Amino acid sequence: MLVLAAVVLFVNALFNAVVWPRFYPRIANDPRARDADGRRTTFYRVHVVLITIALVLAVVSVAAGIALLVTA
């Protein structure tokens, strides 16, 4: 059961590491990402925070998966 949990964590990490960063160029180029003065908007900041959280969760998932395999 621990090995299955570790595999699920690794799949989660892989998904987050592959899928989420691909959204960044689309968000950065979106017209809603900058206001009329060229400053970044809340739209941009919120999406960058979401991508960052997903990548942090990927790192945590890998660490947890390794911890499960080491203790198994």
Structure description:
The longest helix has 30 residues. It is built from three helices and no strands. Helix 1 packs antiparallel against helix 3. It is rod-shaped. The chain starts with a helix and ends with a helix. It is 76% helix and 0% strand. The model has no long low-confidence stretch (mean pLDDT 96). It is an all-alpha fold.
- C-alpha end-to-end distance: 9 Å
Overall, the morphology is: rod-shaped
> Helical element count?
3
| Beta-strand residue fraction | under 5%
Class from secondary-structure proportions: mainly alpha
Q: Could you list some keywords that capture this structure?
A:
72 residues; mainly alpha; 3 helices
Structure in a nutshell:
This protein is mainly α and 72 residues long. Helices cover 76% and strands 0% of the residues.
Give the helices and strands, then pairings.
Blueprint: H1 2-19, H2 23-29, H3 42-71
Helix pairs in contact: 1-3, 2-3
